[in-house]
């Protein structure tokens, strides 16, 4: 999606990724096969470029630091990626800067986790390597303790969540800031993945202002140009807490392609190319339905109900071009736009039942 947006600008794109059949491979000008975690691979790849951005935090940050020191524009800055890529340093960063987040303790082993019975109910999150709900375990009672991680992790107090929202914040090299209207998540308790999303979220003015102020604080304290998604919890008492931040274009911003004047992808190009930030306002409210691989289906992907969905008005299907599906794999998303929230909810539910990724 970032590469699709690049077509509007005079920019030559290079992609580094280990899978030459990945969706980005045929959309860039130059594809380089290689491991983003390897220092030399990232350094050799970046040396020839004017500007670099990332899609996933697991990238080799030391190589990015070296590239930055040699004059390559790296947005987000490696210093911001370093804080964010490990949930332990990320939580410590919020605490250090007085940014509201749930209380936490750090654990290194399962034995150590067992010392924190009085801290329950809580959520255990692995420091590095977790993604899309993997690396997160809910520990409600003592009997759940063995589900935790035998690795450096954070144990966070369980928040009584009223709403999960995400705020996308853009920061230019000149420190100019733009913030998108919030998105509201509805999650699937079984897969622990996003079920569908509405934007702009229904929030009181007071909660909205708090959420905006906190999201902007996070990005200002990270002190890095780039595009950031700040995931927040609104708790039962209307307090707003940071869950986590992604230093990149994010699934909570897919709707901005059709629903906002400047999409998150267009915005990141503006930042990378040194242009003024775009208009973040919503043209119309929107919903996103994630297309996940259906349970019990692994293999070459087929899309059941596709034609029916394509018949629907103001519905935009995005298939990522991944050839193989497996249960829970993100295969695409569908955006719905409408001035009427009821229409959004109705269509989101209809699409969820109609469109299936099977093998
Ligand atoms: P990931 O990085 O894998 O997306 P998250 O840290 O966002 O993992 O956690 C996944 C989900 O788990 C969240 O969307 C939320 O529903 C739930 N969760 C995470 N942390 C807490 C918490 N402290 N209290 C209550 N629920 C939480």
Describe this structure in words.
This protein is an alpha+beta fold and about 350 residues long. The chain folds into three domains: about 1-85, 3-Layer(aba) Sandwich (Rossmann fold); about 105-155, ATP-grasp fold, A domain (Dna Ligase, domain 1), CATH 3.30.1490.20; about 160-359, D-amino Acid Aminotransferase, Chain A, domain 1 (2-Layer Sandwich). The chain is built from eleven helices and 21 strands. It has helices at about 1-5, 40-45, 60-70, 80-85, 85-95, 110-115, 205-220, 255-260, 265-275, 305-310, 340-355, and strands spanning about 15, 30-35, 50, 75, 105, 120-125, 135-140, 155, 160-170, 175-180, 185-190, 195-200, 225-235, 240-245, 285-290, 300, 300-305, 315-320, 325, 330-335, 355-359. The strands form six sheets. Strands 9, 10, 11, 12, 13, 14, 15, 18 and 20 form a nine-stranded antiparallel β-sheet that branches. The protein has a four-stranded antiparallel β-sheet with strand order 5-8-6-7. Strand 3, helix 3 (about 60-70) and strand 4 (about 75) form a beta-alpha-beta unit. Helix 2 (about 40-45) runs parallel beside helix 3, helix 3 runs antiparallel to helix 4 (about 80-85) and helix 4 (about 80-85) crosses helix 5 (about 85-95). The radius of gyration is 20 Å and the shape is globular. The two termini are about 25 Å apart. The chain binds adenosine-5'-diphosphate (ADP). Adenosine-5'-diphosphate binds near residues 132, 159 and 161. It comes from Russula earlei. This is 5-imidazole ribonucleotide synthase.
């Amino acid at each position: 999606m970032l590469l699709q947006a690049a077509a509007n600008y005079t920019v030559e794109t290079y992609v580094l990724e280990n899978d030459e059949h990945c969706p980005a491979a045929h959309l860039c000008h130059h594809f380089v096969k290689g491991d983003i975690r390897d220092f030399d691979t990232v350094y050799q790849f970046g040396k020839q470029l004017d500007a670099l951005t990332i899609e996933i935090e697991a990238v080799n940050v030391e190589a990015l630091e070296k590239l930055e020191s040699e004059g390559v524009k790296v947005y987000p800055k490696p210093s911001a990626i370093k804080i964010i890529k490990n949930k332990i340093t990320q939580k410590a960063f919020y605490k250090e800067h007085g940014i509201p987040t749930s209380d936490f303790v750090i654990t290194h082993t399962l034995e150590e986790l067992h010392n924190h019975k009085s801290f329950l109910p809580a959520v255990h999150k692995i420091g590095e390597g977790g993604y899309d709900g993997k690396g997160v375990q809910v520990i409600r009672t003592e009997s759940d303790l063995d589900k935790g991680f035998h690795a450096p992790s954070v144990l966070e107090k369980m928040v009584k969540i009223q709403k999960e929202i995400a705020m996308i914040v853009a920061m230019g090299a000149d420190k100019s800031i733009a913030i998108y209207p919030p998105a509201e998540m509805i999650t699937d308790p079984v897969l622990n993945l996003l079920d569908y999303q509405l934007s702009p979220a229904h929030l009181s003015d007071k909660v909205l202002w708090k959420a905006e102020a906190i999201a902007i604080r996070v990005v200002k304290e990270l002190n890095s140009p780039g595009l950031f998604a700040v995931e927040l919890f609104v708790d039962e008492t209307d307090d707003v807490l940071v869950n986590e931040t992604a230093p990149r274009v994010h699934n909570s911003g897919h709707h901005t392609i059709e629903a906002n004047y400047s999409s998150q992808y267009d915005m990141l190009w503006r930042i990378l190319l040194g242009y003024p930030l775009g208009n973040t306002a919503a043209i119309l409210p929107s919903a996103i339905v994630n297309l996940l691989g259906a349970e019990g289906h692994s293999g070459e992907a087929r899309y059941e109900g596709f034609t029916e969905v394509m018949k629907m008005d103001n519905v935009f299907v995005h298939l990522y071009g991944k050839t193989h599906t497996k249960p829970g794999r993100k295969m695409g998303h569908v955006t719905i736009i409408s001035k009427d929230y009821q229409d959004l909810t109705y269509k989101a539910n209809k699409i969820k039942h109609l469109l299936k990724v099977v093998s």
